[in-house]
Amino acid sequence: MIKLTSETKVGLFVIVGIALLVIMSLKLGGVDIASDEGYELRMRLDNAIGLDPGAAITIAGVEVGNVQTIALDGSKALITIKVRSGVEVMQNYTVALKTSGLLGEKYLALIPSIKPAPLLRDGDEIKSIAAYSDMDRLITALSDVAVDIKKVTGALGDVLGGEDNQASLGSIIKNLQDITGSVNSIVSENDVRFTTVMKNMESFSASLRDITEMLAANKGNFNATMTNVREAMETLNKIAPNVDSTASSISKIAQRIERGEGTIGKLLNDEETHRNINKTLTGINTFIDKAGRFRTFVSYRSEFLFDESDTKNYVSLRLQPKPDKYYLIEIIDDPRGHRTTSKKTKVVNGQTTTANVTTTDDDVTFSAQVAKRLGNLTLRGGMIESTGGVGLDYHMFKDRLKFTFEAFDFDTDRETHLKGGLTLAIHKYFFLTAGYDDFISDSGLESAYAGIGFQFEDEDLKFLFSAMPSLNF
């Protein structure tokens, strides 16, 4: 492999850096150098009030895209939406303008049909539009109810308002009087039946007398029952002093509690105890909230060093208590080890000789860094590969591409270890990486590299590390 001088390597690295700065400038300047995945669909609504660009597009409650533009097309609102790649929308889908909650934001829901149909492609239009949103239907229903109430009150006004209707009302009252007279006549004509009812009541009274006589016959049993009741009362009278004593003890205990004596008294009456309990509850709530926000990521990557024809492996643990701050712990297996060169002088037969001695340390090193994110830029610092160092990461394209630069091992016996590279996320869990490691080395350790890795979030570790103290900066 062709060996490049340090000046050539630095020049190449500067060229790469300038190219990256151009890409960053284009991105920050609003120039779109990468298009989002997905395809666009159109629809025409009679009323798009409350719907804004960026509003969510859902299927079965799952967000699958968002509104791109809203424009006026004749007397209708022309809506352009973008649906994520991999989401299939058929021609017989129905669009409904809905509201999230009673006073929430508007969004568009795509309602599937039970019948199969051809798929829509980029630029196609959805024809089936639901008539009203949920809130519009509610307002329409309330309007219908108000109209019905108005009709009822109007009808009552018509019935009671005119002279003819008042005459009709008087006729109704006269009819009621006639009905009352008829009832009185019926009662008079049924005196015989009422007499029969009275005889039945007399028979019922006779039955009650028989029951009374039966109770008299069982008077002895009743007396025995009363005797048992009296004995029970006597027993209660004997217990009463003990009850009084118990009540007195309870009263004394209540008085001590009211004075703030004893554990329960202090718990209920002492202000300091109240404050301590409130502090404890606040601490518990803070811990639960902190545990909910704490995130942990585990990753592994392997980098093939072309000059060494061997791999350099990393096992990483990222502890992230906040979205803009995290701690990074790594174990690195470097086949080159950590080499240092020193000069040793020997005197043999009166002659002095000087030789360079290279020492290789253990090939397993460790990193422990603190990182802070500022917009698209992340600054890191701490221990890198068992030596002090700093690093920075620049995130692009919604964090799918990351430029990384590290400087560490500031040993006076050798050049500073500089490493630069790019990391590209190709999947939710997998990523590719490439770059140049130790590119100004004076010990022959420089090498280009390329590799692959994976990363996942571990929910089980978050509660273990959420109790650890965090640094605020």
Automatic annotation (TrEMBL):
GO molecular function annotation: phospholipid binding; phospholipid transporter activity
Keywords: Membrane, Transmembrane, Transmembrane helix
UniProt keyword annotation of tRNA processing present: no
Residue ranges of the TM segments: 12-34
Keyword Repeat: no
Mce/MlaD domain residues: 38-112
Name of the protein: Mce/MlaD domain-containing protein
Record organism: hydrothermal vent metagenome
